[in-house]
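Quick log. Single chain, no ligands specified.
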Amino acid sequence: MIQRAQQFDEVKSKMKEAGLDFYSVGVIYMRSKDETDKAFEYAKNAGVRMIIGSPLHELVDYTEQKIMDYDICVAIHNHVPSDLVYPTVVSAFEKVDGRDPRFGLCMDIGHTFRINEDPDVIIDKYKNRILDMHVKDVTSHGKKGFTYEMGRGKIDIPKFLKAVKKSGYKGNLTFEYEKDAETPIPGLAESVGYMRGVIKCLNI
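-> predicted structure:
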């Protein structure tokens, strides 16, 4: 346990020196109370403010209590169209609506697009519950759509960024680049560059 705590401290120190904000962990699946307990202990030891998570429906009440006990946010991540727990932002919203404001949503715009929903529409509708966003571009709607370099896929990124600005969103846009797993840096760098270019052109 002491060794693990030292490892956490070393990683946190390196990230701070690099000017990085280590704000969240996840996606963490919470399929039992024990896994939920471990997730919050992990987040506490890591010194983060948020867990990007996926608690089973029967653990939502328990997760909310843990949020209040630890003062750590949980943002439920919507997944692929075939996911049976949280296939859409709407399915996650139904579980957090009316709960502690630290219990919200992490919208993955790629998965949202793949299930034939517009990320910009979802932002506008659920902006008060979106705590985090995972950004990527994808090749198509449906199960066959996969991650591609930003700007080369089918998502209207300028339209999405305009919606983010309009919504007043204050959280992070976190790149989740799943293409080229062995050598992701070139594609990720291109995606970051494209996003920066669009933000500059739109003056947002």
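The beta strands are 24-30, 50-55, 73-77, 103-108, 130-135, 137-138, 147-148, 173-175.
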